C-alpha cells in the first residue's frame, strides 16, 4: 500500500511539474526570434485555387492577377465600442485589430499602494489593448477576402486589388447601433464591386457583403473567398513533455460531418486541406482569443489550407460558383469573428464556435466545471468566490468516496503501531512480514488501497480545472479580493501558495506515515516541493487547492476522531 501511495504521489508531482513547465512556456520570458518578412512580389501564391479545372486555370492566368500592385499605404481606420482596426485599401484586408476591452496587462492597485507605502518603485502595466490582427513583419496575422472569376469571365478583385473609400476613418458614435464601411472597385467592362463591412455595437462579428453589379453586358461567373493568413508563434513552442499540455495555437475547422478539427501548422505543411461541407467555418485560435471566417450556414462551402514559401500559412473557405446575368446584382455574404473566446457569446455567433475554448482531452470534465463556475458567478459576481463554490460542489459530489477513503486512512493510522511491531519482528523475513501485514488488514477490515482514492479523484479534476482557469478568458484579469486582482496569474505576494503548503502539511499529518523510512522522508518533502511549484501557478488554481485542502482537513479530522473514539 505504501508503495502504491508513494507512486501515486510521485505521479501527481510529475503532473504538477509538467503543468508548471507549460505555464512557464506560456507566460515566462520569450526569446526573440527573427522572422523573415514576406516578399510581396512572391505573395501571389496565397490566392486560393478552386477545385474545378476551369477555375484553377482562371486563377492562374495573368488577367486574374492584373490588379496586383505594389503595397499601398492608404488605410481606413474604424473604431467601435469594443474594437479598433484598420482596413487596407489593397484588397480590403482587415489588419491591426485591437480589442479595446482587453488590455495586455492590468495594474494591481493594491500591490502598487503597498509598494508606495514601503518606498518601492511601482511597476507600470502595459495598458495597451491586445492586438489580435497584426500587419507587422514580426507576427503577421490578417484577414483577407475577395472574389474569384470563373474561366472566361471578367477579372474579379482579389485581396491585391486596390479599392476606393470615401472616408479615411469611421467611428461608431454614441447611440449608434451599427456602422457601415463601403469600399468600391470597378473595371472598364462595367463590373462594379462593393465590399461593405458592417459593425454592430458590442459585437466582435464583422459582416462582409461583397456586392457584384454586372454591367458588363455578358454573364459573369465567380465565387467569393475568405481566408486567414498568419505566421506561427515560434516563441512559445513546448517540448516533448509539455507540448500536449499547453494552449493550442493554430488552425481549426468545423464541418457538418467531422465537427471540430484542429489543423496545426505542421498539418498544413504536411497536407493541403480540401474539404466540402454545408455550413461550417475556419479559424485561427490562440490563448484566450479566436478569429474565424463564417460563411453562410445554408450553402456548400469549400475549406482549404495552404503553406506558403515564406513561413506563412493560410486557412480559408470559398463559396459555390454563382452566375450573374448582365445588368443584374448578386450579394456574397460572410462573417468575420475576431474577439475573446467567451463561450456563451460564441454559441450565438456560429454552431460549434465555442469549441475553440480548448480544454484538451479533459473537455468532458472541463465543460461541466466551466458551466458550474458560470452559474455561480451569475449569482455572486466574483470569479474567486465561484471557484470556492465549485470546490465545495466537487467535494460534495465525491463525499461518499472521500468519506470511505478517510475512514480507511484513519484505520490505517490506528494500526500503524502494530505494523511497526511486525516490521521489527520480521525485519529479516520480508515475505512473512507481508503475509502478517495483510492478515492484520483483513482482521481490522482495513482497505490498504482506500487511502489512494483522494489522489486518484483529484488528479483529473485538478488537471481539468487547470485548463479551465488557463483557457477561460473570463478569468483573465478577473479580481478576487484584497491583493488578488488577477486570478489568471500568480499571487504577487505568494501568500496563497504558502497557505496551500501549510494546509498540505496539516493534511499529511493526519495520514499514516509510510513504514519505509526513506519513503517517509520523501513524503515529508512534498509540501515544500508543491509549494515551490504553486508559487508560479495562477492564483485561481491555488485558491481551489487551498479550499480543497481545508475542506479535506475538516472532514478527515472529524472522521479520525470518530474512529479513535470507537476504539
Report on this structure.
This protein is an alpha+beta fold and 567 residues long. The protein folds into two domains: 311 residues, Beta-galactosidase, Chain A, domain 5 (Distorted Sandwich); 201 residues, no CATH class. 37% of the residues lie in helices and 24% in strands. It has 13 helices and 19 strands. An eight-stranded antiparallel β-sheet has the order 7-8-9-19-15-14-11-12. Strands 5, 10, 13, 16, 17 and 18 form a six-stranded antiparallel β-sheet that branches. Strand 2 and strand 3 form a beta hairpin. The two termini are 23 Å apart.
**Could you give the distance between the termini?**
23 Å
In terms of DSSP E residues, the strand content is 15-25%
Largest sheet: 8 strands, antiparallel
CATH topology (fold) name of the largest domain: Beta-galactosidase, Chain A, domain 5
The average pLDDT is 80
Strand order in the largest sheet: 7-8-9-19-15-14-11-12
In the CATH scheme, the class of the largest domain would be Mainly Beta
* Shape label: elongated
Number of strands: 19
CATH architecture of the largest domain: Distorted Sandwich
The Rg value, from CA coordinates, equals 30 Å
| Structural class category | alpha+beta
Residues in helix, %: 25-40%
Number of domains: 2
Helical stretch count?
13
* Low-pLDDT ranges: 27-43, 52-71, 236-245
Task: Describe the structure concisely for a colleague.
The chain is built from 13 helices and 19 strands. With 567 residues, the chain is α+β, with helices and mostly antiparallel strands.
What does the secondary structure layout of this molecule look like, with pairings?
Layout: H1 2-27, H2 53-60, E1 75-79, E2 83-88, E3 93-103, H3 109-117, E4 129-131, E5 141-149, E6 169-171, E7 178-186, E8 191-200, E9 205-214, E10 220-230, E11 250-255, E12 259-263, H4 265-270, E13 274-278, E14 281-285, E15 289-294, E16 300-307, E17 313-318, E18 322-324, E19 328-340, H5 343-349, H6 363-380, H7 383-397, H8 399-425, H9 430-444, H10 453-471, H11 495-510, H12 517-534, H13 539-566
Parallel strand pairs: 1-6
Antiparallel strand pairs: 1-2, 2-3, 3-4, 5-10, 7-8, 8-9, 9-19, 10-17, 10-18, 11-12, 11-14, 13-16, 14-15, 15-19, 16-17
Helix pairs in contact: 1-10, 1-12, 6-7, 6-10, 7-13, 8-9, 8-13, 11-12, 11-13
